[in-house]
Amino acid sequence: MNLFQISISDAATFLLILTRVGGILFTAPVFESRNIPVPVKVGLAAALAFIFFPQVGFRFEQKSVAVLAGAMAGELAIGMIIGLAARLIFAAVEMAGQVVGFQMGLGIVSVFDPFTQTQTSLVAQFKNLIAMLLFFSFNAHHLFLGAMAKSYQLVPVAGLNFSSPLSHLMISLAGGMFVLALQIGAPVLAINLFVSVGLGVVARTVPQINVLIMSFPLTIGVGLLALGMAVPFVAEVLKKSFTLMGLQLDALLRAM
After folding, report:
1. Could you report the per-residue pLDDT of 220-249, keeping only the tens digit for each?
2. How far apart are CA 39 and CA 71, in angstroms?
3. What is the CA radius of gyration of the chain?
4. Which parts of the chain fold into alpha helices (H)?
5. By the 8 A CB rule, do 174 and 32 touch?
């Protein structure tokens, strides 16, 4: 792009590229955090769009503003689909943390999450922070940026096509979120289940013991111990999920 002689076609094409990249950054995991100022996100989106511009062998020649607005809506949809598909892994982590925290008796304990600006479970925030650290340690952001660049090869600018395979794949990814949440929370849930069964047996065999009072510290203590012991297992599950994320993003782009 010649910054001193920008044609209307180049400006419209750059705007479309910026719209797709912005849609990705404002919905993708980690990058969509409200802790990151909006000007920083916009600047990063503009820098990436400037990098991708020479790679896009397309120039938007339409002069109509309505056509340009429709193309921008399509590009925004492409970016949001890519970002939300990657965001499902973190949604599964947060869901697992919510269920595990409730099972441990910490359902009423919530803290202010600076990333989402909402009240969230303490265990969910702990798992989310671990997932964010693993996201960068496993170089999953490289896969994400690679998918962003590859999207212009598989889905041309203003070339969105909502097909039936795309809908089925998105539904499958949403269903996989629940399976992943169950896998992440399974160790702590299983141990807490055994603790509950044990307390039930004690309540039936030794009625003099106040099981209700004893269950609160025991469930929390065993749950925290299981939570710490399950970190390597969770890391392995997330590593496979982040690796699979690259294949899922590629399949999504090919289905568009």
Report:
1. 888 888 888 888 888 899 888 888 888 888
2. 24
3. 23
4. 8-25, 38-52, 65-104, 122-137, 140-154, 164-205, 211-229, 231-255
5. no
